[in-house]
Amino acid sequence: MECRELTDYAVDRLLGEAAAPERDELERHLAGCGSCSRELAALEETWGELGTDRDDPVTPEFRVRTLELLEDEMSRRRIREFHPRKRALRIFAQAAALAVAAAAGFLVAARGGFPARPVSAGSPLEPAAGANTAPDLAVNPRLSNVAYRTEPDGRVGIEFDSTTRHSVLGRPEDPQISRLLAYLLSLNVQTAGEKSRAIELVSGHSGPGAAEASPDVVSALGATLKRDRNPGVRKKAAEALASFRSTPEIRAALLDALASDPNPGVRLVAVEALAASAKETPDPKTIQSLREKAFDPQENGFVRARAASALKAIDL
Amino acid sequence: MAGGLIDDRSLLERIRRGDAGGAEELFERYAPALLRFASRMLSDRETAEEVTQEVFVKVISRAHQYDGRAAVSSWLFAIAANACRDRKRHDRRATIVPLEAVGDLSASGEGADARLESRQRRAAVRQALASLSDEQREALVLARYHGLPYAEISKVLGISVGAVKTRIFRAVETLKARFSEGERSWNAAN
Ligand SMILES: [Zn+2]
After folding, report:
1. Would residue B174 count as lying in a domain?
2. Which residue, A145, B30, B104, B146, has fewest beta-carbon neighbours within 10 Å?
3. Binning pLDDT at 50, 70 and 90, where does residue A52 land?
4. Which residue range is the domain that position B35 belongs to?
C-alpha cells in the first residue's frame, strides 16, 4: 500500500471489511512509516469520537403515538381494498355492507339542514341494469347498502336500497349524481370506506382551472370534515374541499379543521390547502391563522413548518 | 438489526394481508434503528420522529412492492434515506442543528461536569456529521452506527460498492480534519 491509501485501509479495517492480506499489508506499512502511524491514530480517534454520540431512544410517547397512527393506517387500507372493482368483489362488498348496516340496526339519520333537492326521472341519470330511477331526495329517503363502481368511460354507478334496490349511472360532475353523492355522504349508513369512495367521486381537480363545487357538495364535505369520527375520512373530506376553487365557505371549513381537528394529518391537509388558497387570495383571516400556527409550540412540526413556509411564499 | 430474514418477510406478508399486529411487530423491531438513522440524518429529534412515522406508513402502503432482492432491513433503510432526503428538500429547517435539540441524554449518576462535557461532545459530533454532504453522511451513518457492510449499503443507496467506500473514506477524512481542528481550538482556549 501507499501512504495516500491509508484511509481506505484503515476504514476497511475499522469496519471489519479488510481481508487478511489487506490487514497484513497495512501492518507492514505502518511498521516502516511514522507519518501513517500518527495518521492512523488520528483516524481511530475520530472513529471513537463518533461513538460518543449516543443513540436517540424511542420514547414511550412516540411509540404509542406511532402505533396508533399505524393501526389507523392499516384499517384505512383494509377499507380501501374493500372497494368493489370486479363483479365478484362487488357482490362481496354488498354482502359486507349489508352486514355493517344490519349491525347498525339500519340506522339512518340525515344530518339536519342539508339542502336536498329532488332528483327526478328524465335527468341525466341513466338507469343501469336492473332499471331503477333515483329516489326523491327532498323527502330524506332512507338509503342503505350503498355500492359504487366506476365504468371504463368514467361514469359512476351507484346502487343502494331505498324501498327497492336502486341503480343509477352517470358522470360524477352531473349535478344530480353529485347531489346524490353528497346526500349519501351526509347519511350515517356508510362505512368509512364507502364514505371515502363517495368523497373521491365528488372531488374536483385542483390546480389552475379548478372547478367550483356545488353548494350541496361543499356543505356535505364540510359536515363530514367537522363531524366524522374517522380521521381518514375527515382527511379525505379536507382533500376534496381543497380540490375545488377556493370560496369563503371552503376556507371557513378548512380554517375550522386547522384550528380544532385533533388529528395532525387532517390539520396538515387543511394548512396546505389554506396556504395554496392564501397565495391566490390573501384572505386576512387565513393569514392570521397561518401565522398563529407557524408559531404555536404545541402544534405538530409538519403543520408548523408548512404554515411558516406558506407565509414566506405569500411574501407579505 | 434484530430479527431473522424469514421472520421479517413474514411480517411484511402479514401487513399485506391487513394484519395490524404485523405492522406493530415491524415497528417494535425496526423503529429504534430507523429513528436513530433519521435523527442523525436530520439532526432534529422532532423531525426525525415525523420522518420515522412516514417511513412506517409508506411501508404499509408499499408492503406488496417488496421484491425480496434485498434484506427487509435494507429496504426499510432505503425508504428512510429517501424520506430524509425528501424532507430536507422540502424543509430547509431540517438541516439546522440547534444545540439544545441535541439534548441531554446522559446516564444518571454522572457528575455535572461530566454531563456537560458529554453533552458538548455529543453536540460536536452532531455538528460534525451535519457538515458532511448528505451522500457522505448516509453512507457513514449506515456503516458506523448501524454496522451495515458495504454490500448492504450499496443496496440501500442504490450505488456501487466502490462508491460506498469512497463516500465513507471522504466522510472520515472530513471528520478527522474537523475534530483535530476542534481540539486545537479547545487546547488554545484552555
Ligand atoms: Zn505511510
Report:
1. no
2. B104
3. confident
4. 1-96
Q: Which of A298, A301, A52, A300 is nearest to B42 (CA)?
A: A301
CB contact burial B33-43 (16+ within 10 A = b; e otherwise): bbbbbbbbbbb
What CATH number should be reported for the domain holding residue B39? 1.10.1740.10
Among A42-51, A89-98, B5-14, name the one with the lowest average pLDDT: A89-98
Maximal CA-CA distance, chain A? 98
Residues in chain A: 316
Query: Do residue B53 and residue A56 have CB atoms under 8 angstroms apart?
Result: no
Give me the number of domains chain B comprises: 1
What's the CA-to-centroid distance between A16 and ligand 1, angstroms?
Answer: 21
Nearest to B39 by CA among A205, A193, A58: A58
A:64-123 residues touching chain B, CB 8 A cutoff: 65-67, 69-71, 73-75, 77-78, 81
Break chain A into its structural domains and give their ranges. 1-51
Cα(B159) to centroid(ligand 1), Å: 30
Residue B145 lies in a domain: no
The ipTM is 0.84
- B78, part of any domain: yes
Using the beta-carbon criterion (under 8 Å), do A71 and B35 form an inter-chain contact?
A: no
Whole-number pLDDT of residue A38: 92
Asked if A78's CB is within 8 angstroms of B179's CB, the reply is no
